[in-house]
Amino acid sequence: MPPSRRRTLRAAAGSVSAALAVSAALGASPAALAATAPARAAATTVAADAPATFRFVDIPGSGGVTLKGNVFTPGGYDATQRYPVVIMPSSWSLNDLEYIAQAKNLADSGYVVVSYTPRGFWLSGGRIEVAGPQDVADISKVIDWTLANAPADPHHIGMAGVSYGAGLGLMGAAHDRRIKAVVALSGWADLIDSIYSGRTQHLQAAALLGASGYLTGRPSAQLQQTLADFLASRYDKEAQMIAWGKERSPDTYINQINANGAAIMMANAWGDSLFNPNQLGSFYDRLRVPKRLEFRPGDHATAEATGLFGLPNDTWSDAERWLDHYLKGEDNGIDREQPVELEPTTGGGYESYASWADVATTTRKLALGRENFWGTGALGGDAVSGWSTRIGTNVDSGADGGIMFLSQLADQLAKIPPMAEIPLLPRAYAAVWQSGTYGTGQRIRGTVHLHTTLTTTADKASFIAYLYDVNPLGVGKLIAHAPQTYIDRTPGRPFGVDLDLFSTAYDVPAGHHLALVIDTVDPLYITHNPIGSHLTFSSPADDPSWLSIPLN
């Protein structure tokens, strides 16, 4: 790991949320924000004392739509010189002022940088299409305009962005061969697996995206209908919603991305409330291009938030190194580093791995056991099969995934994740299994998997599985969780359940133990248990229930 990475800037620089950083970017003048960006030595010939030039522009998009944007150009350039290009689409509900500090920083080091507001938001024309075909066509139009109106090198074009801008960058890599490098920060690969994982509507995520879209833009008729069907749990429209989401998912175009060959860097937070880490890990595994994957503590866009001020920030530092290598050809070593870099949610500095599969070196399978007098089953040890446990539905047991943004931001800044007092959880509404106390620390790395058997008293059922790190006083800190919904099931007929919890990197201290909790209500999700229904989890002798823990 190079010395610049050992600085471990993340905690000091991460004290401001993404929302705060963006608000400041929108409220401050371009000059004031640009002044916060640290100066960098130019890799391309630029006059040493000449400031980058800045201008607002109108960019013709596809279908006659006008996109609002701005351009930074290296100062003191020769009219005959051409510079590498970075295209930066703004985040959802934000505009092209979002990247002022980072865009100037890049321009000072020798890039032409074009930021633009995607169609449907703020003053850009058109309707919000959520990375649909019109948005993809806009990317190529922005590149065309840049080559015609700026000293841009047509052979060295990249994209970088946060959230919506990240997803657009990946979509651009699939559809425009001129793009040679992409930096996708807090983006998505599979839109359906992001906000509809386990066939469960992610309520807070969808509501926030919908509300902010209406507040700052003009949703298309198709988006309005899809969002309405989604929030109303219209499973009769599920096929249409999935088709809509897949069309807007970079994962759908993985073969095109691989064929086009753009170098892809992705960086997200473990607790991202919009785009969970599982869908990115799967996408990363199938990339056959130069690639890099980074995970840090926090929620959506909080890990890179302070970089929007131009403050020192590890995520943006790596982003610039990535662009410098693949657009400028700088030999800065990023291509020789281990391509998977993780920072555990519990702290302890960065860890580097050769691949996503190498994050876990072993897997421990813990059997789920019969509940005792106190209503708690064993997790591992001498747990045996041949049992069943039944819980009621539609009552929140107190085990929850937290509140969007706030809970994971508290974990990022103060190491205070969502917590629950495990002994006090009502066993009538929560199934609980606990392991023995660990004499040594347990380094959980990767994706926890649950296998069990479920029987419902209704034709549909939802549950949420949680894994907790429990201290000697019984206080559990949430390690990972995930929801699951089943529709059109035969009441009374058992069926197998396999559920991946959201991936993580978490260190369980010596003297603590693990607890698996399953209940049926969480404020993050829409659940589908009819009133009065019950769920029965069981462990038949021929198909025992277990929980696998990935360890390093």
Automatic annotation (TrEMBL):
User: Which residue ranges does the record assign to the Xaa-Pro dipeptidyl-peptidase C-terminal domain?
Assistant: 320-547
Look up the domain of life of the source.
Bacteria
Name the SUPFAM superfamilies for this protein.
alpha/beta-Hydrolases (SSF53474), Galactose-binding domain-like (SSF49785)
Organism name? Streptomyces humicola
Tell me its family: Belongs to the AB hydrolase superfamily.
A single MF term (Gene Ontology): hydrolase activity
Which NCBIfam families does the UniProt record give? CocE_NonD
Q: What is this protein called?
A: CocE/NonD family hydrolase
What Pfam families does the entry give?
Peptidase_S15, PepX_C
Tagged with keyword Signal: yes
> Could you tell me which InterPro entries the record lists for this protein?
AB_hydrolase_fold, CocE/Ser_esterase, FrsA_esterase, Galactose-bd-like_sf, TAT_signal, Xaa-Pro-like_dom, Xaa-Pro_dipept_C
The signal sequence is: 1-34
Q: Which SMART domains match?
A: PepX_C
Key words of the record: Hydrolase, Signal
Question: Taxonomic classification, please?
Answer: Bacteria, Bacillati, Actinomycetota, Actinomycetes, Kitasatosporales
